[in-house]
Design goal:
single chain, alpha/beta, Rossmann fold, two-stranded parallel sheet, NAD(P)-bd_dom_sf
Length: 196
């Protein structure tokens, strides 16, 4: 990992490259936080959301966000929506049992990206708009435990997003990286080390 003191410089250097990004799953909790952070940091010259439906935004910050509506059952017919982007984020949520061990990684590898990172967070800590009783119970449980223990089994979405963006701007010679919950915590908190 690069020296955390260089993160602001790495972000500025990245910003100057005028790259474009697409986000799959921007209507979900992680995608919403990621989009908000990308716009706040002004990291990309073009931001495109790809999803099943358009998302209505009222805030001025979202006025230049492009949106492409696709049918995920027929993605081959929508390849143009993905073209012309330098970076892509997939925030389509799933449980580990639904994803199948190794299946996601195998599918992503077929695309032959220059570089990609798979994030495997534990229980995501957030305040969802939709009701997920099991997640609510898990959040309550983890919030009552000592940080050192809960950190191994949960992670705030904001930490995941910071880890995603820090990983993006940090140089790497690895084609594929797989980040578990501990690595996500470390990378997501990296910029906090420099703050007084």
């Amino acid at each position: 990992m690069a020296d955390t003191g260089t993160l602001p410089k790495l972000r500025e250097d990245f910003r100057m490259q005028n790259k474009s990004v697409f986000i799959l799953g921007a209507s979900g909790e992680t995608g919403q936080v990621l989009l908000r952070e990308i716009l706040k940091e002004n990291l990309f010259s073009k931001v495109t959301l790809i999803g099943r439906r358009k998302i209505e935004f009222e805030e001025e910050a979202y006025k230049h966000v492009n949106q492409e509506v696709v049918d995920f059952e027929k993605l081959d017919e929508y390849s143009s929506a993905f073209q012309g982007h330098d970076v892509g984020f997939c925030c389509l949520g799933t449980t580990r049992s639904k994803a199948g061990a190794g299946e996601v990684e195998a599918k992503v590898e077929e695309f032959n990206f220059d570089r990609y990172t798979i994030f495997r967070p534990a229980v995501l800590l957030c305040n969802r708009k939709e009701s997920r009783p099991a997640e609510w119970l898990a959040r309550k449980f983890f919030s009552s435990l000592p940080t050192s223990w809960s950190k191994d089994h949960s992670v705030p979405i904001t930490t995941v997003v910071r880890a995603m963006l820090n990983n993006l701007v940090m140089p790497s010679d690895k084609k594929m990286e797989l980040l578990d919950n501990q690595a996500i915590h470390n990378l997501g908190k990296a910029e906090d080390v420099d703050k007084p």
